[in-house]
Amino acid sequence: MENKQEIIFEPIGIIHTPYINEAPYQPVANDTKEFIVELNRKYVDGLKNLEEFKFIYLIFYLDKVNRKVEMNIKPPWADGKEVGLFSSRSPNRPNPIGLSIVKIKKIVGNKIYTSGVDLFNGTPLLDIKPYIKDLDSKSDANYGWINNSEDEEHLALHIKGIPHSH
Amino acid sequence: MENKQEIIFEPIGIIHTPYINEAPYQPVANDTKEFIVELNRKYVDGLKNLEEFKFIYLIFYLDKVNRKVEMNIKPPWADGKEVGLFSSRSPNRPNPIGLSIVKIKKIVGNKIYTSGVDLFNGTPLLDIKPYIKDLDSKSDANYGWINNSEDEEHLALHIKGIPHSH
User: Fold this and answer.
1) DSSP type of residue A55
2) Rounded CA separation B88/A9 (Å)
3) What is the phi/psi pair of residue A73, to 5°?
4) Which of chain A's residues have a Cβ under 8 Å away from the Cβ of B158?
């Protein structure tokens, strides 16, 4: 079973971040800069009621990744540990689809002002979904192979492979 | 800003479910039937360490949806309330990308045996990501416009627009 079907998507908007030519070097949650999800105007009516949710999923196209895809990767911070690609959040995936959860600050027209997200400016948006408490917040989730002694923001940087100062 | 870029993905596997010609009519979490995520063999090494996670995200292509996309929808169970498409988990989206969280039961070769997921048999898989406690489990999430008096499984069926007996 090796399905060769092609699936074609189109951006429905664009994600504006302060990160133009380099990845963020600071924990994004502390970032006071603006992060704006700009939806194509023809879809603006689809935002009705979205502001009633605290969190949303952003699904986007990782258009700036190095496309060399390896099935095993060694996260530079993991003491040489080699893990499977699908056990990681590395952007170098067969389908470079990114998934982030952000907090909604406000919605004005076709623009959603959100909490920080460590994406390059101009990242194409594919979908927005509401993050719904009981469906999406799994209190009995775990950390898998990841050392959970790290604090959350720091951990997030490691998991996503973003260089930063310790 | 109306980006017309085409983004091309390929299935990396297929999701096997008991639901062939009709949507599931029972809460999936009680289903004792088999749900198997079958990854294309060339990607099998990418599954290393995945079994250490309790939960994973499945990202898939909703290939069987009615593609008529409306920006406002009336979920049949919501007393005539009209909500924005992006405030819903309706499958009829500009890019029909689905997102589900499942529990891993076991992994054998290129097959991941999972908890129930309300998808049609043969749904094309686009990506697998680990669900990582601190990154993904937002304990302060809310229900948005959704009445949270429903129990979780029942709520899930409603949100996803799956017909079922009350």
Assistant:
1) E
2) 19
3) -130, 155
4) none
Domain count, chain B: 1
SS3 label, residue A9: strand
Which one has a higher pLDDT value, A153 or B106? B106
A110-136 pLDDT, tens digit per residue, is 999 999 998 999 999 999 999 999 889
CA-closest candidate to residue A69, choices A51, A41, A92: A92
HSE (CB half, 13 Å, CA atoms) of A119? Answer: 30
What digits encode the pLDDT tens for the residues A70-111? Answer: 999 987 677 778 999 999 999 999 999 999 999 999 999 999
For A22, the 3-state DSSP assignment is coil
In a domain, A4, yes or no: no
Q: Which CATH number goes with the domain that contains B153?
A: 2.40.30.70
Q: Which has the minimum average pLDDT: B22-31, B51-60, B151-160?
A: B22-31
Partner residue opposite B10 with nearest CB, options A5, A138, A141: A5
A48: in domain? yes
Task: Give the closest-approach CA distance of A126 to chain B in angstroms.
Answer: 6
B9 and chain A in contact, CB less than 8 A? yes
DSSP states of B5-70: --EEE---EEEE-S-SSS---S-GGG--S-EEEEE-GGGGGGGTTGGG-SEEEEEEE-TTS-----
In contact, B164 and B157? CB cutoff 8 Å: yes
Highest mean pLDDT (candidates B10-24, B49-63, B77-91)? B49-63
| Residue B4 to chain A, least CA–CA distance (Å) | 7
Classify residue A165: in a domain, yes or no. no
pLDDT digits (tens, 9 = 90+) for B94-132: 999 999 999 999 999 999 999 999 899 999 999 999 999
Count of CB atoms situated within 10 Å of the CB of A139: 7
Question: How high does pLDDT run on average in chain A?
Answer: 86
Whether B154 maps to a domain, the answer reads yes
